[in-house]
């Protein structure tokens, strides 16, 4: 997965400027290899958006998404399975028992803070008056030379669980992702296998990438 999951930029900047730092020394980290949770994604200043449940498997290089949202003022639902090692993505319709199969032209990028990322801040989300009132997070920033993009990524200090990302390219503008309800592990590994009615699906010509799931 290309985490590649955010707070709106204004709120994040306020937290950066006013948040209290702790004595912990932030370190670059890697998200747990198996993770289940939910996420929201928005682009074009909120005109396009999606809410999704996700299953993330960095070991097998697989991602499963169940989502709904709105793009170009039109609502949509999608059930997608990304198999990066096989370089294919399935769009699955259980109601009609149909399956669309497309080439997946991007490599798998595990969710992590890159080695060349720069620490922007360490802050407490929520309250800091008493234990349990807030969440200690680290925000990192960096460039993505291969796309000409840049990013702002926030993860928890303990566990390296994604909290938010802001990702920018000239093509997409700012894409804001927020992650929530994350749990380590995968409850049902069968979710990473296409259903039987996908076996005979012909491969479409159009190549897709991970952002195709949303926009």
Automatic annotation (TrEMBL):
One of its GO terms (molecular function) is calcium ion binding. GO terms for biological process: cell-matrix adhesion. The keyword Signal applies. GO terms for cellular component: extracellular region; lysosome. Residues 1-23 form the signal peptide. InterPro entries: Ependymin (IPR001299). Keywords: Signal. It comes from the Eukaryota. Belongs to the ependymin family. This is Ependymin-like 1. The lineage of its organism: Eukaryota, Metazoa, Chordata, Craniata, Vertebrata.
């Amino acid at each position: 997965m290309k985490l590649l999951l955010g707070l709106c930029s204004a709120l994040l900047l306020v937290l950066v400027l006013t948040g209290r730092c702790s004595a912990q020394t932030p370190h670059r980290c890697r998200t747990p290899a198996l993770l289940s949770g939910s996420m929201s994604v928005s682009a074009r200043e909120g005109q396009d958006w999606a809410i999704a449940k996700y299953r993330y498997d960095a070991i097998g290089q697989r991602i499963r998404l169940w989502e709904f949202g709105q793009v170009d003022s039109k609502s949509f639902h999608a059930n997608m399975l990304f198999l990066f090692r096989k370089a294919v993505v399935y769009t699955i319709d259980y109601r009609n028992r149909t399956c669309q199969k497309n080439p997946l032209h991007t490599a798998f990028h595990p969710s992590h803070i890159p080695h060349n990322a720069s620490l922007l801040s360490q802050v407490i989300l929520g309250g800091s008056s008493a234990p349990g009132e807030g969440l200690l997070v680290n925000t990192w920033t960096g460039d993505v030379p291969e796309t000409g993009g840049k990013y702002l990524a926030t993860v928890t200090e303990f566990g390296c669980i994604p909290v938010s990302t802001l990702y920018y390219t000239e093509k997409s503008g700012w894409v804001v992702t927020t992650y929530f309800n994350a749990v380590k592990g995968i409850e049902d590994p069968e979710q990473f296998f296409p259903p039987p009615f996908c076996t005979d699906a012909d491969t479409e010509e159009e190549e897709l990438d991970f952002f195709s799931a949303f926009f």
